[in-house]
Structures are given as C-alpha cells and as structure tokens.
Amino acid sequence: METAAKPNHIGRKIGRIRELRGMKQETLAEELGISQQAVSKIEQSEHIEDDKLNQIAKVLGVTKEGIENFSDENILNIISNTFTSNDNSTINAINVQPNFNPLDKVIELYERLLKSEQEKIAYLEKLMKEK
C-alpha cells in the first residue's frame, strides 16, 4: 500500500489553491456552472483535461501552469522570503527581538495593580473610620 502523496495530483493542487484563495467549493462550482459534487470529484482527480483546467485556473485567478507547478513548499518559500527584515530580526513577520524588555513591562503592570489595590484599601479604611 502506497502512503506517499503523489506530487502531481492536479485535483489536490486545485483544492489547495481554492482554499488559499478563501473560496468554497460551492463558489467555484457556481463560477464553473457545475455542481459542488462535480468540484469535489475534480479535486479528487489525479488528471484533468486541459480545457477544464484552463477554466478552473481562470476562476481561481491563476494560470494553468500555476496550478500544474503549485506546491505548498513554494508557498512557504514565498512567505519566508516576503517577511524578512534587514537585520534578520523577524521570522514570518513576528518580531522576535522586541525593542523593550518584556520583564520591565510585567513589573510596570504589577506596580500599577499594586498601587490601585493600595488606593482601594485606603479608601475602604477611610469609609470604616467615618462610620
């Protein structure tokens, strides 16, 4: 039994591109003038006729070649090459070298909460003395 994914399974590529575009099978089906079940069958197909592939590519906003050459690895490479900075301080657009000390922020927050609690206690003590 073969468990490895076939690298050129055109239906899976169509499904993945559709998902990345944020498109539901129903929407693709409407645009192609076919049923959602037909789209599901296409996405399970290893091969698709060129004419149908061109129609699908047009609806997805890509080229036929773009579908044929699609891979998740290419997308990850594009993402990692897009989200970089000159000082290499970002990984996938997340700043891993903040320009402040996080511990200072925690201490600052703690001190503000402590001061607030002390003010509440002083206010309650004042109310108790008045009674």
TrEMBL record:
SUPFAM superfamilies, per the entry: lambda repressor-like DNA-binding domains
CDD domains from the UniProt entry: HTH_XRE
Recorded coiled-coil stretches: none
Signal peptide: none
Alphabetic keyword roster: DNA-binding
Pfam families: HTH_3 (PF01381)
Chain ranges of the HTH cro/C1-type domain: 14-67
Keyword Calcium among record annotations: no
InterPro entries for the chain: Cro/C1-type_HTH, Lambda_DNA-bd_dom_sf
This protein's record includes keyword DNA-binding: yes
MF annotations from Gene Ontology: DNA binding
SMART domains: HTH_XRE
Protein name in UniProt: DNA-binding XRE family transcriptional regulator
